[in-house]
Specification:
The chain is an alpha/beta fold. The chain has 10 helices and 7 strands.
């Protein structure tokens, strides 16, 4: 291409439009890969149920509605966020009903769609903040907050499973407020929102209020799966040891 430069005609090469678009697409793809890698870094991978999978229907009593809702959230994620930006889910119920299984399934399904998701127990989240306080690592804190505030979907498992302190409650409230009506949080807890309000101390009412404002509560019922598994262990043992009552 001819270029007029300082009164003289010069010849220079320019990048064609297709090459520019290809380079921009490659750079965008790299940014997305780096972002997903960062989200994966902060995920509580040891707490994920690796075999978890969402199903449109389930025969398990007490969790059928929860599974259907979780499946719909992932299957229609784009439409869900367009119609109700930042609206998440609050799964609650007793131990052993499959709450962590459902959150693990949501996480795996979202990641398979390249949606940036982070699965983290609240205990793990508070430990991360505690690590920041110990070493005064600004860069680490910046990455942690970037992930907690900015990932597309944050999955917080076992909310209320840790001993509450005011400082912890304030950190949780900060995360909820930063994502409010923008990016959803999926919770699991043994507590109803009323129970969580009492458990979380001075910030409990504000936390429960924000959760109710930004999520749909789903209560799971039924027999603990762990109890059913233990019953099968007993049946197996009775087959080996004759005469057990």
């Amino acid at each position: 291409m001819q270029i007029q430069l300082l009164g003289q005609v010069r010849w220079g090469s320019v990048t064609c439009t297709c090459e520019t678009k290809a380079r921009e697409a490659e750079e965008e793809a790299k940014r997305n890969r780096d972002w997903l890698t960062l989200c994966h870094e902060f995920t509580s991978r040891d707490k994920l149920i690796t075999k978890a999978a969402l199903a449109r229907e389930t025969e398990r009593a007490g969790s059928a509605n929860a599974m259907k809702i979780a499946y719909n959230f992932v299957d229609t994620y784009t439409e869900w966020q367009r119609e109700k930006p930042g609206l998440g889910l609050y799964f609650n119920g007793a131990n052993g009903l499959g709450k962590t299984y459902i959150l693990s399934g949501i996480y795996k399904s979202l990641m398979s769609k390249n949606v940036s998701a982070v699965f983290m127990t609240t205990y793990h989240m508070f430990q991360r903040f505690r690590e920041v306080g110990k070493v005064d690592d600004y860069e680490y804190e910046k990455r942690l907050l970037k992930v907690l505030y900015g990932c597309d979907v944050l999955l917080l498992d076992d909310v209320g499973g840790e001993v509450p302190y005011d400082s912890r409650a304030e950190k949780l409230l900060d995360v909820i407020n930063a994502r409010s009506q923008k990016r959803p949080i999926i919770y699991s807890s043994n507590f109803t929102t009323e129970g969580l309000e009492q458990w979380m101390g001075s910030q409990g009412a504000r936390i429960a209020d924000r959760i109710l404002e930004n999520s749909i509560t789903i209560t799971l019922h039924g027999e603990s799966l762990r109890g059913a598994i233990n019953d099968r262990h007993h049946d197996w043992l009775a087959g080996r040891v004759k005469g057990l009552g």
